[in-house]
Amino acid sequence: MRLGSVLSEAMRNIGSGVSRAFAMFLVVLVAGTLLGGYEAMSVVGLESEAGERIRSDADVKSIVGGDVDGGSCDRLADTFGGGATAGAMRAGSRIVMRATPGKDVSTYEVTAGMLRLVVAGTGAKADASGVWVSSDVARDFGLARGGMLRTTTGSVKVAGVFDWPNDGRDTRFAYAVLVPVAAGSGVFTECWVKQWPQSEQVDGLLYSTLRVSGKGGGNAGVTQVNKGFDTHYDAQASYMSRPTRWLPWIALASGMFVGVAAVRRRRLEYAGALHSGQGKGALLLGIAIETGVWSGLAALCSCALLTAYCARMVSSDSAAVLMGAVRSPLAMAVGVVVAGVAAGATIRQSQLFRFFKKR
To answer: What sections of the protein cross the membrane (predicted)?
Structure first.
């Protein structure tokens, strides 16, 4: 039987409804989309969890209880690379606003690296030409970027306003003024490092910022700036252990079941074709073409739906999430064709009368 004849017959079977192609198409489309969508939703959930930790500074660690060298602390960002930020801080003298003589505000002297850490993710430039005030202080005293902070000891330019939400993080910056100082201007009390994903070397490198003299780090310890989150969180481990990682295999098994069912319901027709003289190779090729058409189209439509979902819902690398999600509909289509051909290979001409009796 010529290839053109096999192809023509397969298309006629699909067009006439003999192969129930539309019903099978819907089965693969719905199942593939649900399985792939569940995988995409799972990864988006993990991504949202990681994003929330980053926005809440749960990825920031600090060393306290020792004399910190500001220059060494700021240079930690270069050591880690990859967008990491690090900076040192110490408590400054409290200031009194002219508008409220009876109320003082805490100040903290920070290095340029600490300013970059505070504004990380906001898109703001860490301008060290003036002081930075928290949004609560700015609201209470009517301050804005470029304005003047007027205190009983003088006035200074406001270089910027930063947000410091009450989401479990260290609350000292929530109502404070940050004063930029040179990294070499004496010792600091804390060094903070913001890095994602966090490295196991963070703790050791934080200890390396301590000065040998003074307190020497004997009472120093590393802590998490936002203690409202699990300190043992591992984004990579969470991704690798997600239950949906098995979905492509489930989709493959489901596709094989659909493929076998599609061939089994037409086994009398196939046995009759063999009895009429059709070759086994032509029969299997026809099965492969028919199952490949409706399962392939279903997988293609499913991938299109998953692409739209990822483009809408994924905030970072939508292509990476999509590549994981489309494995399920593609695996299901492959399972349909392979199982269909395998089931067709078991059909023999000698089974015709037995199939006829059981119809």
So the answer is: 21-38, 246-263, 283-309, 329-347
Q: Contact 222/206 with Cβ under 8 angstroms?
A: yes
Closest CA to 259 of 347, 359, 343, 355: 343
CB neighbour list of residue 239: distance below 8 Å, 6 or more residues apart: 43, 46
DSSP 8-state code for residue 299: H
Sequence-ordered list of residues with C-beta below 8 angstroms from that of 105, at least 6 positions apart, any chain: 94, 95, 96, 97, 137, 175, 176, 177
Helices (H), 56-152: 70-80, 112-118, 135-141
152 pLDDT above the threshold of 60: yes
Q: Judge if the upstream peptide bond of residue 180 is cis by omega within 30 degrees of 0.
A: no
Using CA atoms, how far apart are residues 142 and 291, in angstroms rounded to an integer?
Answer: 70
* Residue-wise DSSP of 155-199: EEEEEEEE----SSB-GGGTTEEEEE--TTSSEEEEEEEE-SSPP
Sign of CA dihedral 121, 124, 125, 131: negative
Tell me the C-alpha distance between 326 and 285, whole Å.
26
**What pLDDT, in 10s, does the model give residues 79-115?**
877 778 999 999 999 999 888 887 889 999 999 999 9
Q: Quote the tokens at residue 219.
A: 């009472």
Rounded to whole angstroms, what are the CA distances from 30 to 301, 303, 305, 309, 313?
Answer: 10, 11, 11, 15, 20
Give the residue-averaged pLDDT of 232-236: 75
Strand-strand pairing, 187-194 and 60-69: antiparallel
* Candidate from 146-150, 193-197, 228-232 with smallest mean pLDDT: 228-232
178/2: higher pLDDT: 178
Share of the chain above pLDDT 70, in %: 89
Q: Residue 337, CB half-sphere, CA atoms under 13 Å: how many? A: 18
Instruction: Tell me which residue of 203, 242, 241, 240 sits closest to 223, measured CA to CA.
Output: 203
18-28 pLDDT per residue, tens: 778 888 999 99
277: Cβ–Cβ under 8 A, 6 or more apart, which residues? none
Q: Is the pTM of this model over 0.90?
A: no
Kindly give the pairing relationship between strand 131-134 and strand 148-151.
unpaired
CB 331 within 8 A of CB 255: yes
